[in-house]
């Protein structure tokens, strides 16, 4: 056949360590029909500071593949919530082959057409809390590329029509496809009039949705006569592919005829008509390819003798499909959809036949949530009988077996989900995260329990309450999780983000959960550690630094209630919106540093005129600069460090000016340096080091509490003593020198006593 190659790529994205499904990167691809091979090229490279990250450590990258919906992954091996079905997926782990780049390849032969999803993440890390901008972070970027090779003009088989084929010696196989509409209970594929050098040296393989593989349903025509392959309960509204291939080593030409028969279960006495005049009557897509460019409206081709090749069969007596009751879709919100049953939600299940319902999930739109199903048995309707109601949920075809004693939801080609309710367990639930879209069929039937197993009931109609709905997350992630709505390009999906040590898909795994006592202790530590600001407030009030004291009180108040609101567990108390509390906490912390440094600069003795006004200007300027920086980026290093360095620069200039004027180091006494400035600076430096390099998610509650204690303690040491009040002292005696005169108050410079009550001892130096 003729092959066409298509190429798809996605933008590189930064990968994150796995914590929950909300931390993965999801990529969405679409594989066209008739694809024979799909090759994913998985490109990963490192970056650090805008350049190649050759010095970054090698971290393995795990990539998951799934058709129809995103993968339900569990790399941390946590427990899933009860009654949750976990669909499978493929996984590939990429290792590094070059210092800054690696490439992996993932091949899928005859992939299923439609939506495919890739999920990628890094391994879980230790949860270190890093300061943004402190150092260049290693980034791991992942870019998937998809190359597909598909066949065009695959020959289409028409039900009941014979297709003749002669396979030349250089050809190994012939590929066909046939469309299976709804209400088809059986597909029969048969090879007729096979002639070859060694009888009929052919293999007959059939597969739904994609070309057959080596493990697909197969039949050796050399050992079976007639060569018939029967498929019960085929998928509705899908293409079935038929592959006829030679045995290995067979030479020469092989001629044969192939035909397909479809059994219509809605018309038990007739087979599906071999030809319908329009695609609508056959529920067949309007556009499909065929080798002979045959449209459904065209007449069938004739055989060599000019006759039409028509074959018909009848379905077995009693084989029929039961009525399928539709459901009404009611969309409430994103991934919040209820499926209502007409004349429900109570459903009657007769003893002689199943009750079948269909739930339609929209393509792409509904696959990012959770499909929930709930059955509740009305015991009063059983009339004392030992009745069990079984429910089978299957995708794309209802499982309505003729064996009334069967309690399985699986066949050779189908695998469904089983639910059951009886008098001892009247409630049954099923949750399917990230369900495949399309039609889901629920078949309910009642069986009576006996000593020999289950048997059909007589004259007992069971009644069950049926509820089906789509939700974003399982139980809204419970008390210790948050359901987040995520987006990748134009695809929406939801995932839980757990807290307080809880894990799992629905935040129900408490293996590492914080106890209530631990949560209470961490909250109290983070809140009560702010009481350490009381001594700096008292010192500031005693020294008449009233504005500084107001700032410290502001910081203590909002830091306390911010941490009371920021807790991950249930010990939470919020007096305002979280964002307001966070902004005020960050602003108060930085303003405390600003006003302390400005107070240490002691601008009043340096700037004699309008000193108070200029000090207020600096305080107001700091408040405006810090508010702007916090609005830009609350976690950015330089946005927060810049104003602090500016304040330190003002202090350094003021101290340098005094040192030059006095020709003596300022502050002039060793006691001030030894007992106040050096201890305060060391405490502040220790606090910064703990905050920047030691703090992690596990030790946050006590390391951050120590940070509160150290910062408040450093303020008590660094805050200067009370300044000399202006107007309380008379003019100092002046003694002539040889050029200029500098008058200093000795007690004020030492910072040891209150200059307002001490005797004045002025030293004039020339």
Automatic annotation (TrEMBL):
Keywords: Cell membrane, Membrane, Transmembrane, Transmembrane helix. Residues 496-507 form the EGF-like domain. Pfam families: DUF3522 (PF12036). The chain crosses the membrane at residues 513-533, 545-564, 580-600, 612-630, 636-657, 673-694, 700-719. GO terms for cellular component: plasma membrane. The keyword Membrane applies. It is a multi-pass membrane protein. It is found in: Cell membrane. The keyword Cytoplasm does not apply. Belongs to the TMEM8 family. This is TMM8B protein. It comes from Ramphastos sulfuratus.
């Amino acid at each position: 056949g003729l092959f066409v190659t298509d190429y798809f790529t996605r933008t590189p994205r930064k990968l994150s360590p796995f914590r929950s499904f909300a931390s993965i990167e999801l990529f969405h691809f679409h594989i066209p029909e008739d694809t024979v091979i799909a090759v994913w090229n998985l490109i990963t490279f490192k970056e650090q500071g805008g350049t190649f990250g050759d010095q970054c450590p090698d971290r393995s990258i795990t990539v998951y593949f799934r058709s129809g919906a995103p993968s339900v992954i569990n790399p941390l091996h946590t427990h899933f919530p009860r009654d949750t079905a976990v669909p499978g997926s493929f996984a590939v782990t990429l290792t590094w082959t070059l210092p800054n780049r690696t490439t992996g390849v993932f091949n899928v032969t005859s992939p299923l057409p439609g939506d495919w999803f890739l999920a990628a993440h890094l391994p879980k890390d230790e949860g270190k809390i890093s300061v943004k901008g402190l150092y260049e972070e290693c980034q791991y970027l992942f870019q998937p590329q998809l190359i597909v090779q598909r066949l065009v003009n695959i020959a289409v088989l028409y039900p009941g029509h014979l297709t003749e084929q002669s396979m030349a010696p250089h050809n190994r196989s012939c590929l066909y496809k046939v469309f299976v509409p709804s209400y088809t209970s059986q597909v029969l594929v048969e090879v007729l009039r096979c002639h070859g050098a060694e009888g009929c040296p052919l293999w007959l393989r059939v597969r739904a949705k994609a070309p057959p593989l080596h493990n697909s349903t197969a039949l050796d025509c050399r050992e079976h006569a007639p060569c018939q392959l029967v498929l019960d309960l085929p998928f509705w509204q899908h293409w079935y592919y038929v592959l006829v291939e030679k045995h290995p080593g067979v030479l020469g030409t092989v001629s044969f005829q192939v035909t397909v028969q479809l059994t219509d279960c809605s018309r038990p006495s007739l087979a599906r008509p071999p030809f319908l005049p329009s695609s609508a009557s056959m529920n067949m897509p309007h556009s499909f390819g065929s080798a002979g460019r045959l449209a459904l409206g065209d007449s069938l081709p004739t055989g060599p003798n000019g006759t039409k090749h028509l074959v018909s069969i009848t379905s077995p007596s009693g084989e029929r499909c039961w009525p399928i009751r539709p459901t009404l879709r009611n969309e409430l919100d994103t991934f919040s959809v209820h499926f209502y049953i007409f004349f429900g939600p109570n459903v009657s299940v007769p003893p002689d036949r199943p009750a079948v319902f269909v739930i339609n999930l929209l393509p792409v739109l509904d696959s990012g949530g959770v499909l929930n199903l709930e059955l509740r048995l009305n015991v009063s309707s059983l009339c004392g009988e030992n009745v069990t109601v079984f429910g089978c949920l299957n995708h794309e075809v209802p499982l309505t077996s003729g064996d009334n004693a069967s309690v399985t939801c699986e066949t050779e080609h189908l695998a469904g989900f089983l639910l059951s309710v009886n008098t001892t367990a009247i409630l049954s639930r099923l949750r399917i995260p990230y369900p495949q879209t399309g039609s889901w069929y629920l078949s309910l039937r009642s069986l009576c329990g006996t000593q020999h197993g289950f048997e059909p009931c007589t004259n007992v109609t069971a009644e069950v309450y049926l509820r089906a709905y789509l939700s974003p997350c399982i139980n809204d992630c419970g008390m210790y999780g948050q359901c987040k709505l995520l987006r990748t390009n134009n695809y929406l999906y939801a995932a839980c983000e757990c807290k307080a040590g809880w894990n799992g898909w629905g935040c129900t795994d408490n293996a590492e959960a914080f106890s209530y006592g631990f949560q209470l202790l961490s909250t109290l530590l983070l809140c009560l550690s702010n009481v350490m600001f009381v001594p700096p407030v008292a010192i500031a009030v005693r020294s008449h630094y009233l504005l500084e004291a107001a700032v410290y009180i502001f910081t203590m108040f909002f830091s306390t209630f911010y941490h009371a609101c920021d807790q991950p567990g249930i010990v939470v108390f919020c007096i305002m919106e979280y964002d307001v509390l966070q902004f005020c906490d960050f602003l108060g912390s930085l303003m405390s540093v600003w006003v302390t440094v400005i107070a240490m600069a002691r601008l009043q003795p340096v700037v004699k005129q309008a000193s108070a006004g200029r000090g207020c200007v600096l305080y107001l300027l700091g408040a405006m600069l810090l508010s702007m920086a916090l609005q830009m980026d609350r976690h950015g290093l330089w946005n927060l460090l810049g104003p602090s360095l500016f304040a330190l620069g003002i202090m350094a200039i003021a101290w340098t000016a005094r040192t030059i004027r006095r020709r003596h180091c300022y502050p002039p006494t060793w006691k001030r340096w030894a007992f106040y400035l050096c201890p305060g600076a060391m405490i502040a430096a220790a606090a910064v080091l703990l905050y920047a390099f030691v703090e992690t998610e596990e030790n946050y509650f006590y390391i951050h509490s120590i940070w509160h204690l150290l910062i408040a303690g450093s303020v008590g040491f660094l805050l200067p003593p009370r300044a000399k009040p202006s107007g309380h002292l008379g003019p100092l005696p002046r003694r002539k020198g040889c050029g200029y005169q500098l008058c200093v108050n000795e007690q004020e410079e030492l910072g040891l006593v209150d200059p307002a009550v001490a005797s004045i001892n002025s030293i004039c130096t020339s």
